[in-house]
Design brief:
By secondary structure, the protein is an alpha+beta fold. It is about 45% helix and about 25% strand.
Amino acid sequence: MVSANQTGSDHLGYANREPPYAPGFNEAMNRGMQMQSSRNVAVARDLLARRRVEVLRTRPEIETLRQFWGSCSPPRDADFDFFLFIVDLFPEVERVHVVVLYEEDVPKALLAGRIEVGRLPIRLGYFAIPVPKLRILQIVHGGWLGAISEENAKALIESVVDSLAAGEADVASLHSPDFDSSIVRCSRVLPSWWCSDHAVRPQARRVRELSGAAGPFSCSLSQNERYQQRKRARNLTKGFAEHRIDRFTGPADVDRLMRDAELVASKSYQRGLRVGFSGSATIRSRLQFEANMGWLQGYILYLDGQPAAFWIGSLRNGVFLSEYLSFDPGYTKYGPGIYLVLKVMEDLHDDPRHPPTRLVDFGIGDAAYKERLATRHWHESSVLIFAPRLGAVWVNALRSSVEIANRSVKQALRLTPWLLLLKRRWRTKVIKDG
């Protein structure tokens, strides 16, 4: 007979049993979870044991990476053959320095770099500050290839920091990675404060997508842009008996391309600032290499037979990468530069004579025409890591101080219109004196 204080559960035989989540049950669950956690830790340790980072310092060593390297679809500067070409081209380059992350002897990610001797460009405005030569570990633009996760980026940058501490270089320079990337985050966090880059300057990189534009290229432009381009064409027709654009792509074209582009560049403001295109042997070798690879795309606008503007780039894997762009200031009122840019983009989109172009990359650095013509952009910034030695730390401090001064001047220019006018007049003087 069931007593009055017995419950229904007692009657069913559960009176002396623990409920489903009683302490005893929880302890068993905890033990199971601890065992699973231990197994997870063991798996993680085993994975770490199978991961290693190596630095390859010779050409035969990196030749073993050619297939993996190419499978990562590197941009032009990080192309395997272009990378080796630059190593051979510049006498200041001492050797390659490629950091590779392996998992079970299979490459998963890498940093493509080289050790060279040179000076860091430190400028107060347009004036170069003299600094001593340093051994620089240059990680080329786009040279972070493979699976660049946060964890992998950390392992690769730790190797760079270790190489600097070991005296292999005085500074490492990562050439313009995406500012929001794990490569930038690790490069700024892992070094000590004294060795970190405090002069990071993100700059816009703008591109225009061509592959999604239906119909002729002109249809993808705004109504005002189409009108302005027609107006430029009319003005050129009125002002000159002949205007034409010649295209340069092959090895036999390089000599004339170099000669006529130099005629324009020698009159440009870039020449006064000692930047941009020049008729140097180095640039000739680069253009010859690109022509041999089938990448070269050079365009020159001629007005009555005289070169007035040029745009030189490389077309590779469907991407036209802008390298050199300039115009003769004597033709400014005709807008030869923007006229040529739009005609080249029309050619890249509409002309079936060359491989399809899906993207025009205007390169790092901003300009009004880039902002107007681009369809998307992101920000990139070169990031430096300095070795933990007195000389390198001193250069870092100098560079940081100069950057603070430059930012202050730029802020003053934005707030004071007459200073901006002074800057423009000074630039004009540089063109005339150059």
